[in-house]
Automatic annotation (TrEMBL):
Protein name (record): Phosphatidic acid phosphatase type 2/haloperoxidase domain-containing protein
SMART domains tied to this protein: acidPPc
Entry keyword annotation includes Membrane: yes
Record-annotated Phosphatidic acid phosphatase type 2/haloperoxidase domain positions: 96-207
Residue ranges crossing the lipid bilayer per the database entry: 21-41, 61-88, 147-166, 186-207
Domain of life: Bacteria
InterPro entries registered for this protein in UniProt: PAP2/HPO, PAP2/HPO_sf
Keywords, comma-separated and alphabetical: Membrane, Transmembrane, Transmembrane helix
């Protein structure tokens, strides 16, 4: 395998920063509204109650199975395994770089936000932010993980799958997880919306990194020196 086949790029690569600013602004706006605008809290409660009232057993179990598409740890392990295989075949550690970066970025950004906002999940406490110490519902890490990790997986598999399949890999799990986390009562609606905005923002940050141009020791990039 040539060194070119080891190129990993998270697509599409953003050009303008306006979208990034809008995503961050949207996340901050939701957070502020949860603190200052009570109708949004009532909407969260109404959506939870509606979901609770329309959750027959077949729908519950179907949603429960589908919701596992967004489990962060299995996705991270799968991405790492694929990256290591690609790295060994191409004799360069570059395929592993976006996997490590995704892990650091998601934990480094989402973790402190979840801890700091102290919001309970539906059925585990009040809907308000900063109301339940020890609870970590906001924003939805499930959504952030789904967006970031499937983008990384699509990048790793870009040389092996056709474009329509790669698009489905990036989009379908996000749509499914967005619906099921709210329907199952795992997250408030605004948890999920905030996670969606934050996940896309983090994905765009990862996509801007020129993985192929990052300096590596010769021992970790034998393909580049051949």
């Amino acid at each position: 395998m040539s060194s070119g086949s080891a190129v990993v790029a998270i697509r599409p690569v953003p050009r303008a920063w306006g979208v990034d600013a809008a995503l961050l602004g949207g996340f901050l706006a939701i957070t502020a509204a949860l603190l200052l605008w009570s109708p949004l809290l009532r909407l969260d409660v109404a959506v939870r109650n509606l979901s609770d009232a329309h959750r027959p057993a077949p729908a519950y179990w179907t949603a429960w199975v589908l919701n596992h598409l967004g489990q962060g740890t299995p996705l991270a392990v799968l991405a790492l395994v694929i990256a290591v295989v690609l790295a060994v075949r191409a004799r360069t550690a570059r395929p592993v770089l976006p996997v490590l970066a995704a892990e650091l970025l998601t934990y480094g950004v989402v973790g402190p936000l979840k801890i700091g906002t102290e919001r309970a999940a539906p059925h585990y406490g009040p809907v308000e932010l900063f109301a339940t110490p020890g609870q970590q519902s906001y924003p939805s890490g499930h959504l952030v993980n789904t967006i970031v990790w499937y983008a990384v997986l699509a990048a790793l598999l870009a040389g092996y799958l056709p474009a329509p399949v790669l698009t489905a890999v990036r989009v379908v799990p996000v749509v499914v997880t967005s619906i099921t986390t709210v329907y199952l009562g795992y997250h408030w609606l605004t948890d999920t919306l905030a996670g969606l905005l934050l996940g896309v923002l983090l994905c765009r940050i990862l996509a801007r990194i020129p993985w192929q141009r990052i300096p590596l020791p010769a021992a970790l990039d034998r393909a580049g020196g051949s």
